[in-house]
TrEMBL record:
This is Pirin. Residues 165-219 form the Quercetin 2,3-dioxygenase C-terminal cupin domain. It comes from the Bacteria. Residues 22-123 form the Pirin N-terminal domain.
Length: 221
């Protein structure tokens, strides 16, 4: 596997959603009507969507299958309801995961009174099928990995202060998304919405120029 750091800029994301309905989406990978055969996935990562929902806006009930859906709320509150019988409100600092298994349906809404911003990431499972399941992990501590065994992956949430260094996991593949802050990775300057797809690189560090928030996926080869 060739060594590589592939930086993708937030400004180059594909714009989707339905602004007339209060939904703005910025996609990092091919999604829906936007198709780029050279940007379908990175390892098991199929999507990394930046979503903004106005107060009262949302996604009506829709289906998923054979996908691990992990959501990180940045601002506001996300109301979730699904066919497993779960209903919850997800807040900043919480990680939500819906394992769609052989099939699940869910609704995602902003029932709050201010804009909701979140990042939603889709991963392909190691094996298709199975029963759907759902969980919310509240108040994820900095640096504590959140395991997604069905995809052979782990999410590291990091919140470095200005001048702090964050070690990049020494995995065969790493996907890094910047939520907040100005950061430097191997000489590249990264800001909110930027991402890096890292392959077979070891000993990397991220240096925070300002207080930041990062989502770092440790992925299988």
């Amino acid at each position: 596997m060739a060594l590589m750091i592939d930086v993708r800029r937030g400004a180059d994301r594909y714009e989707g959603g339905d602004p007339a309905a209060g939904i703005t989406t910025r996609h990092a990978f091919s999604f829906g009507s936007f198709y780029d055969p050279d940007n379908l996935r990175f390892g098991p990562v199929l999507a990394c969507n930046e979503e903004t929902l106005a107060a009262g806006a949302g996604f009506d009930e829709h289906p998923h299958s054979h996908t691990e859906i992990v959501t990180w709320v940045i601002d506001g509150e996300l109301t979730h309801q699904d066919s497993t019988g779960e209903k919850s409100t997800v807040l900043p600092g919480d990680v939500q995961r819906l394992s769609a298994g052989s099939g699940a349906r869910h609704v995602e809404r902003n029932d709050g009174d201010r804009p909701l911003r979140f990042v939603q990431m889709w991963l392909s499972p190691l094996a298709a099928g199975g029963d759907p399941s759902y969980e919310v992990l509240r108040g994820v501590p900095d640096g504590t990995p959140y395991e997604v065994p069905a995809a052979g992956a782990a999410l590291h949430v990091r919140r470095p202060g200005a001048g702090e260094r964050v070690a990049v996991p020494a995995a065969e593949r790493v996907y890094l998304h910047v939520v907040r802050g100005d950061l430097r990775l191997d000489g590249a300057e990264l800001g909110p919405g930027d991402s890096a797809r890292i392959t077979a690189e070891k000993g990397l560090e991220i240096v925070a120029g300002s207080p930041g928030e990062l989502l770092i996926w440790e992925l299988p080869a």
